[in-house]
Amino acid sequence: MSPSLVDMRGITVSFGGSIIALRDVDFHVRAGEVVALLGDNGAGKSTLIKVLSGVQRPQSGSIWFSGEQVTLSSPQHARCLGVETVYQDLALIPLMSVARNFFLGREPLRRLGPLRLLDHVGMDRLACEALAGVGIDISDPSQPVGRLSGGERQSIAIARAMHFGSRILVLDEPTSALSIGETRKVLGYARAARDRGLGVVFITHNLHHVFEVADRIAVLFHGRNAGSYAVEDLDPESAAHLVMEGSLPISGSWS
Amino acid sequence: MRFTLRGFIRNASFLVACLTAGDAYPQEADRLHFAFVTHGGPGNPFWNVVITGMEDAGQRYGVDVQWLSSPTFSIEDMADFLDDAIASGVDGLGVTCPDPDAIRENIERARASGIPVIVLNTADPHAGTPDALPTLFYVGASEFLGGQANARAVLAAAGDIALRRAVCPIQEIGHSGLEARLAGFRSVLEPAGVIVDGLTISNDVGESTGLLADYFLAHPDSRAIATLGPLPADAFYLYADDMGLEAGAILHVTHDTSPAIFERIRDGMTLQAIDQQPYLQGYLTVVFLYLHRTLGLALASDALTGPFVIDAANVDLVAGLVTEGYR
Amino acid sequence: MRSQRLARALGRHPEAGAAVGFAAVFAIFAIAVPNTFLTANAFSSILTSQAVPGIAAIGITLLMISGEFDLSVGSIMGVASLVFLASAVSGVPVLLAIAIGLGAGALMGFVNGQLLIRTGIPSFIITLGTLLVYRAICLTSISGGRIVRWADYSRENPLVTLPVPLVLLTALGLAALLAWICGAAWREATTIRRRLLPALGLATGGGFAILALVTLGPRLLGVVDVDVFHLLNGRLHLGDLGGNFRISILWWLGLAGVFSVVLTRTRFGSALAATGGNAAAARAQGIDIDRIRVVAFTLSGLLAALAGIVQTARLKSVDPLRGEGLELEVIAAVVIGGTLLKGGYGSVIGSVIGTSLTGMLRTGLVLVGVPSNAFRGAIGALVIVAVVINSLVRREQDT
Question: Which of B84, B108, B90 lies closest to C49 in space, CA to CA?
């Protein structure tokens, strides 16, 4: 088993001292695996992701990246360490072109005499190549993102994360608003990212998608760990029971 | 998607067609065309009379006339409108001179293209010096003399009461004509030992009323006010009514006229108003431009249309002409 | 289908709608009053009157693309003009006075930006407040209802005396810079059409260098008196063409070119559009949106100040109401130019077209013989047409 890309241990987050969102939670992601993070609304999934992406600081607990302990100071810091979070609707800017979205904040520059200008030609070409790499064919990288379908938008964000050497890709509800065909494509992108050696965290409510794509399932229940299982060791019924009740069904079979 | 290019152009042409068909003056090649570029215009009762004078003369003499001004005081817009007027090839210009240096180059260009320029309403402060703008002459009131006449009326009315302080609110800052009225007012009162405060207000009556209230609260010893136009006079009346002032509690004189001013002259709240006969300014400017253009004639001096004093003795006569739009 | 294609084209090029409108209005006036409209006098009147609001509109364009408003731009222009002229008449060297005026404008913009990011109050409200505050600076510092006039202090324009070698080196340096950029563009270009612009730039740079050498070379030990007001906004004498073309037009178009490149070809430009288009997404991509907003406000203030200084060099006076109403004129021009009110999308070139279009409408109506009262109504109608086009574009983008 490959070592963990990130290892979060004993994470506790409370809001205003009284409401405890996460209590002593452990979570880890290895290279080349898709971890589905499950839990009912309010179970603490999004808080855990905020900790991982540097948005929320935990009250206690430690975070280790590739064996080194780190205190995440900001979202930028988390990005530097290779954590890329793709939100359902916040990821892209609808009025900007595919290529400019793809390279936003990290545009390739070319020299023109003393000037350093955006390399639009290079941006278009590289964006096309990177998108082709995850299996999506964008005919015109200069068209605005707003004209693309929801699945295509997700794919751009995923391809972007892979292109810029992210090591951990967090997909927050990537399929919640997509058609069946689109969903299938996005799951394919997640697998493509895993095959390239990234660690993928996949947050969803849809258990069918989990069993299609995940290697491992981690469940949160009322802010606590409710277990982490290889996908072969669970069936959808027991997974649903974990999410709803925080424990496996008594009659369930597991190894 | 219901948008079409054709529709857009159609709408745009419709807009311009409405504006051009409805309002435009016919421009025939043999008719003279004069433009007035001024710092004030429609919406202000004073300027409406000048415009009436201009239009009446235009009709009488068969001349196309055009009024160009922006709704708020703006020297930069005056300069731009002058460029437009020169571009449209006018045969003569009537111009006000609140800030001569700002429009100097435009006036010089007009002169160079053979367009005669008459200054109306607000004189070139450099007139008679080497810095004067190249214009024919001035048709308007002597603001300085008007200010002096008002100051004398205030002193006479004060009589035995010791007058220590007076106020003169200015509604268009930087306007040299208003400055001249203020200077005339000062030139009589200050040697008589009266402090004259300048107070910055605006053409917004409500706002100005508040400023006046604040001023009189801060200076209870101020017993006279010279307003420099009808809107500031309205502001003073509003203040006086709010406070329940009796006629003569604060001595009021004003420049220019309005129905409210006449009414207050009748009831004694206002001592007198200095009229500059704005109708003459619009009318005579067209006449003189016409005579200059057709016969090469020009006055050898300025044509003073004021000060003309309106007080209780002649207010009814004048007011009658106002309703007809000539005052 | 065809209308959809057009809307799509408008989507790619924010300035397309304004360009169509410009052509339409131009054609209407050219047909209605050809004898006066198609003249140097009319063109110069349009360009000269729009150069000053045009410079301010560049800053407002960048700001609106970043999703913010600056209603205080007219007041900033007034204060900066006042600071500049008051410094100059009180004996401060004129170049320093320009720097002080620009600095004042940038500072006021910076304050707007800081207020925005520190309070989180919408910029519409914040700059409505600073509009009044900055205007009060003008009204209180010119006491007693006066105008500050250069002519009251000096009959001559301010001159800066510079040694010839310094001027020559600066001129040659600028020419070399232009040649360097254009040369690089020339080498990169693959088609003749793409080489046209670099070639033009090279020719201009070369001509400029030769002109500087020929005129200044023989007087290498002398000095040059530079008339600063003329440099800022003097009359351009274009041979027999006539008209009132002024140097302010060159400043306007030059700055528009520079900032158009900044907007479309730099990371800063991308960050501006991203901040206005989707602030959360921009932040997620590591863009410091607060910094971007403050920089945009500062730039807007700086350009408003420059507009004011350029205008002051022509009018040679400042009254306390200078620039009043500029904000609405400029925002109207920017919106007509295709920049979205909500931000995220727009173009500097579009704003140049939009500003010219409003000027053309005004001059054209004067030429047709309409009294000036109708002018604002026409601009208003144009704004509404432009916003309708913009919202069609946006609907197309969002679906």
Answer: B84
pLDDT tens string, chain C, 399 residues long: the values are: 455 666 666 666 778 888 888 998 999 999 998 888 998 889 998 999 899 999 999 999 999 999 999 999 999 999 999 999 999 999 899 999 999 999 999 999 999 999 999 999 999 999 999 999 999 998 888 764 567 888 888 888 888 888 888 888 998 999 999 888 888 888 888 888 888 888 888 898 889 889 888 888 888 888 888 899 999 998 888 777 778 889 999 999 999 999 999 999 999 999 999 999 999 888 888 889 999 999 999 999 999 999 999 999 988 888 888 898 899 889 999 999 989 888 888 999 999 999 999 999 888 888 888 877 777 788 888 888 887 877 776 665 554
All chains having 3 or more CB pairs closer than 8 angstroms to chain C: A, B
Pick from C272, C298, C306: which is nearest to C110 by CA? C298
List the subunits that have 3+ CB pairs under 8 angstroms with B: C
- Chain B residue numbers touching C28 (CB-CB < 8 A): 12-13, 16
Cα A174 from Cα A34, distance rounded (Å): 14
* Distance between CA atoms of residues C73 and B251, nearest Å: 41
Single-letter code of the amino acid located at B31: R
CA dihedral C249, C254, C259, C260 (to 10 degrees): 90
C-alpha gyration radius of chain C: 22
String of DSSP letters for B22-51: HHPPP--TTSEEEEEE-S--TTSHHHHHHH
Q: Looking at the complex, does the CB of residue A139 fall below 8 Å from at least one CB of chain C? A: no
Q: Quote the longest CA-to-CA distance of chain C.
A: 69
Q: In what order do the strands lie in the sheet with A4-15?
A: A19-30, A4-15, A60-65, A68-70
Does A118 lie at the interface with C, CB-CB under 8 angstroms? yes
> What is the value of pTM for the model shown?
0.81
Interface test with C, best of A95, A101, A118, A152 (most C CBs within 10 A): A95
